[in-house]
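User: I'm designing a mutation panel for phosphoserine transaminase and want to avoid disrupting the core. Could you give me a predicted structure to guide residue selection? Please restate the sequence first so the numbering is unambiguous.

Assistant: Good idea. Sequence first, for numbering, then the predicted structure tokens:
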Amino acid sequence: MALRIPDDLLPADGRFGSGPSKVPAGRLGALAATGVDLMGTSHRQAPVKHVVRRVVDGLTTLFSLPSGYEVAIGNGGSAAFWDLATFALVEQRSQHAVFGEFGAKFASASRNAPWLGEPTVLTAEAGGLAVPVAEDDVDVYAWTHNETSTGVVAPVVRPAGARAGQLVLVDATSAAGGLGVDIAETDVYYFAPQKSFASDGGLWLTTLSPAAIERAERIAASDRHVPAFFDLVGALKSTRLDQTYNTPAVATLFLMAEQLDWMLAQGGLDAMSARTAASAETVYGWAEKASYVAPFVPDPSHRSPVVATVELDASIDKVRLMDELRANGIVDLDAYRGVGANQLRIAMYPAVDPADVEALTRCVDWVVERL
């Protein structure tokens, strides 16, 4: 028989998945209320174009986009964007700072592209941080703002000594919307909507600097073959018209627009960063004090405020612990596949109430005492 956690210890919402993430209560109801005019409507027509514009305007405001920077939207998610970048943004060679699965996958995409030179790959062990360094013969620096797989956060600053014409591409899949960022330090800050933006998957979104736009246009005008699905210039042109190049997941765009409205109403990116930082302080403070668990990332300055990974003592049966939590409505604490055998991974995105994060730690303590 499953343990019954007392009601006064339970979180109001027990969803802590790192992606897809929690969609706040009421959002699907909002979609249903407007769905008659929205769902099943051509993405070239006003109802859907209005939602695209809401997303673009929301991101422009949330990130305080510098003059000349633009937003582009396309189908396929961040995994598709890695391949897109090899066609549309990397001119000859790239450098990748890899400290987790997401960064490694982009590096692999660049290495496997036969029209590109062998990339430079700087690596760190899981739980550590690798950062880019200036290198003369690369035209792209690439790294991950937040490694969803390990819970490591990286600074977003142009490498010291980087020369003009070298682009900075930052994978912000689990960071965008939950971490502060100076977009001017990047040329391409790309992400998907199913994490901090409390939506569903299947889309990529990115900010583009004037230099990134010029690079994409130049490559598109060259003799390099760029498949239509990876046509960044086409995606940007469509976004300027409040459309997407291909038919989008309309419900995904709507849920993201709703989340953006909420974020801005709460105070924007500063407020979201403060919210995730409060949750992170709770989790890491608990993990440092409890006898049976510890932060997986050893350096406190590298610990993510949006995805926390904690290492359980070998004496703790993680499967049993998670089964007991799941039976009480606390779900999606799985570690990233292949990273840790006895870990919990806790999403602390803006939609996750810091009070629920605190309740989660109490519930884990309660269950562990009774295993």
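For picking mutation sites, this is relevant: Residues 281 and 305 are 8 Å apart (CA to CA). The radius of gyration is 21 Å.
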